[in-house]
Backbone:
């Protein structure tokens, strides 16, 4: 399973409960969205996309986007990507996920990477694809 941005939250959440998934890649997903709500800078966009009428309603939805108590259930191999310069999802969110997951974790924080590291894709896309292929091939053999 592979998730990018909010998919980088939903993919780890899914594998915490779905044990048939062999490996997971999470790119720039939040661990606790409400924990950095006041500095995120994208709250108006999130509020609108969450179909909320006010920032307060948006914050209440954001509070439910949290992997605390869930990440500990992740037992499949997990490759986490973050951008050190990400202003949408701070890299400490990926560090928290790496620390909380129970299975094997590879953490790749790209020093000059922005949100989803689209400015430096060559520093994570080949590595993450090779990582996934390695885990899938190891399970097949």
Residues:
């Amino acid at each position: 399973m592979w998730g990018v941005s909010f998919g980088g939250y939903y993919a780890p959440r899914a594998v915490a409960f779905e044990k048939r998934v062999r490996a997971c890649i999470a790119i720039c997903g939040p661990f606790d969205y409400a924990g950095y709500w006041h500095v995120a800078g994208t709250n108006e966009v999130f509020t609108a996309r969450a179909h909320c009428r006010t920032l307060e309603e948006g914050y209440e939805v954001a509070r439910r986007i949290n992997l605390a108590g869930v990440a500990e259930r992740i037992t499949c191999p997990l490759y986490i990507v973050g951008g050190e310069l990400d202003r949408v999802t701070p890299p400490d969110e990926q560090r928290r996920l790496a620390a909380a997951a129970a299975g094997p974790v590879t953490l790749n924080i790209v020093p000059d990477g922005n949100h989803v590291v689209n400015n430096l894709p060559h520093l994570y896309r080949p590595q993450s694809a090779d990582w996934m292929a390695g885990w899938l091939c190891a399970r097949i053999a």
